[in-house]
Specification:
binds adenosine monophosphate; alpha/beta; DHBP synthase; binds magnesium ion; 15 strands; 5-stranded parallel sheet
């Protein structure tokens, strides 16, 4: 398949005209990758079963992992849902457009392929100007998972999308960097209190400040298999959570604890693994950089994820850093676990899954 790559510059006048072709491709059943504020998405007309099948094929995505439907106007919620839970309005006002996905009862109109047979549908209104304009112009709700090959780190730059999907989709829109860097928070509002199914760009603290009670229990859901220790939660409510995800080619080991001890442990292991002939990557932070001996830099690829004091930077850089290690042909990455507050929760969730649960607690 020939893939058209279209660069869109929102600084020029009438920039949205640059989206006319892509919008037409979407509404006529094609596949278009586009930037959102979280990560790049791979879109198709959500009401066209054949178009949506193309998403699963291009990504190699398991068919029991449902898709998020993206809209440009809150009115679209009405055609996608049967009944609108009463917390919907307050959440839409507080967080839309933005990185919050709401799981609601689905309407007849939503094909089963979108929801993997569930009786709920996940809906989000993105804030990225290109995503919003593209969806509006196409005139249809747009199903869009992340625009990567299934299992790989999500794309935050157009070059990541090109690496994974060139030749497999009709159009790739180049619209710069996806700033948030981790996917949306998925919130089930069919239950009381609402329950976070996946941590993401909107934090637990932000949700609680608007709703009061919100359930989030990383302990009761096994984060990388999705199997729950509580039988009442099985099968997994968010089917996508059970798959290996976000994985660089390198093996990933996560180390958690006092930052100075973690750095010492990583340094010790780096020397050992290096002597065994393994090429090592270290994912540290600005604040911990000085804990690593300069000599380590001669044989390890060391990348800072960002600043612990500004956890938004950790989220923003995460997937790009994982792909950067692959470019350097690193075989084993050791990563410092971030503090789990604010968006750090989402960063920790993605790192744990990328590591396949491989964590050492010091
Ligand atoms: P992705 O678009 O690749 O970021 O993944 C979408 C996420 O939303 C996956 O974890 C899905 O399991 C989840 N999701 C989509 N639809 C539903 C739904 N109806 N109920 C629960 N989770 C959903
Ligand atoms: Mg994804």
């Amino acid at each position: 398949m020939k893939t058209e790559i279209i660069k869109v510059d929102t600084a020029v006048q009438d920039w949205d005209k640059q989206l006319d072709y892509a919008a037409q491709v979407l509404s006529s059943g094609g596949l278009v990758a586009f930037p959102t504020e979280t990560v790049y998405g791979l879109g198709a007309n959500a009401l066209d079963q054949t178009a949506v099948e193309g998403i699963y094929r291009a990504k190699g995505r398991p068919s029991d992992n449902p898709l998020i439907v993206h809209i440009a106007n809150t009115d679209s919620v009405k055609e996608l849902t049967d009944s609108i839970p009463f917390v919907t309005t307050v959440l839409m006002e507080a967080f839309w457009p933005g990185p919050l996905t709401l799981v609601m009862p689905k309407s007849e109109k939503v094909p089963d392929i979108i929801t993997a047979g569930l009786d709920t549908v996940a809906i989000r209104m993105p804030s990225h100007p290109i995503a919003a304009a593209l969806i509006k112009k196409s005139g249809v709700p747009v199903a869009a998972p992340s625009a990567n090959s299934s299992g790989r780190p999500s794309p935050t730059l157009v070059k990541h999308v090109i690496e994974d999907l060139k030749g497999k989709v009709d159009v790739i829109i180049d619209g710069g960097i996806s700033n948030v860097g981790v996917e949306s928070t998925v919130l089930d509002i069919t239950v009381t209190p609402p329950m976070i199914l996946r941590p993401g760009g909107v934090t637990l603290e932000q949700l609680r400040s608007v709703l009061g009670a919100v359930c989030w229990d990383p302990e009761s859901v096994d984060m990388y298999t999705g199997t729950s220790s509580d039988a009442s939660l099985a099968p997994p409510r968010s089917p996508g959570m059970k798959y290996k995800h976000y994985s660089p080619n390198a093996a990933l080991l996560l180390l958690q604890g006092d930052p100075e001890r973690v750095a010492a442990e990583i340094s010790k292991r780096a020397e050992l693994y290096h002597r065994e002939g393994t090429s090592i990557g270290i994912l540290n932070t600005d604040e911990t950089a000085s804990f690593y001996e300069p000599s380590l830099h001669t044989y390890c690829k060391i990348i800072s994820l960002g600043s612990r004091e500004n956890p938004e930077t950790l989220a923003s850089n995460l997937f790009r850093c994982l792909r950067d290690f692959d470019e350097k042909a690193v075989e084993m990455i050791m990563a410092e676990a971030p503090d789990e507050n604010g968006i750090g929760q989402a960063v920790m969730n993605r790192l744990l899954k990328a590591a396949g649960g491989n964590i050492i607690k010091l």
